[in-house]
Specification:
Blueprint lengths: L23 H13 L12 E2 L2 H7 L4 E4 L4 E4 L5 E4 L14 E7 L1 H10 L36 E3 L3 H5 L5 E3 L2 E11 L5 E3 L19 E4 L5 E12 H12 L5
Antiparallel strand pairs: 1-4, 2-3, 4-11, 5-8, 6-10, 7-8, 8-11, 9-10
Bound molecules: zinc ion.
């Protein structure tokens, strides 16, 4: 048992990211199995990897690498645990030719996205027969700049920025956030500025002007990982307080 975990499984200080032993991997696995109840048919354990600070440091990984042609920054999702997904869309090129990006989501939407097999855009009809509407707070028919084309799939190269869209789920003593990790085909998307009204840099790895990638081509974005982040309420609140410092609204 990790040194910062009490006998009943609760943390008596800090959170999974602060200890000296990885506890995120097991907690995240339990969350995926017990709470999300995802069918094994969607999963590909070959891509499972824990990016908590302990595991990340033990591997000696960097914060970022380059991927795609021409190369662009691949920001490692430090602090998250990845569960590999089977590729629903056949790749048109080798894995390494694709860029890496993220799509923050709500835990209760994860199952629907996996059943659909891809990220959808407003107006798409889902496997349930229902039409996808833009989420509250997202640009759409009645909100956002005039003429903004919101009927696209939006992803971000930044896991930090995607975290803003990963609304947490209260589970046990924790806040759980989910995000998809995706492959993005080069030359299929438009880079756009962030849309949350930041007044300072959101992610040191990227300019605020290129935090949104938008495409209207479904198969340009391929799901390949489900990311789970687990924090104590206190640590999550600190993150929210930190965010408020760079937001104007
Ligand atoms: Zn770990």
């Amino acid at each position: 048992m990790a040194s910062n975990v009490c006998c009943d499984g609760t943390f008596f200080q800090g959170d999974p990211l602060d200890g000296n032993v990885c506890v995120l991997k097991d907690l995240a696995k339990e969350y995926v199995k017990e709470e999300l109840k995802l069918d094994d048919n969607y999963m590909n354990e070959q891509f499972n990897i824990c990016y908590c600070r302990v595991c990340h440091k033990e591997r000696g990984d960097r914060e970022s690498y380059s991927r795609g042609k021409p190369p662009m920054t691949y920001a490692i999702p430090v602090g998250w645990c990845r569960f590999g997904l089977k590729l629903y869309t056949p790749l048109e090129d080798s894995f390494e030719c694709y860029y890496r990006a993220y799509h923050g989501t709500q835990p209760n939407r994860v199952g629907d996205v996996l059943r659909t097999g891809q990220l959808c855009m407003p107006g798409d009809v889902l496997y349930t027969g229902k039409e996808l509407k833009e989420l509250f707070g997202h640009y759409g028919e009645n909100y956002g700049p005039k003429g903004f084309d919101y009927k696209r799939v939006f992803v971000s190269p930044s896991i930090v920025y995607s975290g803003y869209y990963a609304s947490p789920h209260n589970w046990k003593h924790y806040k759980v956030q989910t995000s998809f990790q995706v492959l993005v085909k080069p030359d299929t998307f438009q880079k756009m500025p962030e849309t949350i009204g930041a007044t300072a840099a959101i992610d040191k790895l990227f300019s605020n002007n290129e935090l949104e990638w938008a495409t209207n081509i479904h198969h340009a974005v391929v799901l390949y990982g489900l990311l789970i982040k687990i924090s104590t309420h206190g640590t999550y609140q600190k993150e929210i307080d930190q965010r408020k410092k760079i937001l104007t609204r």
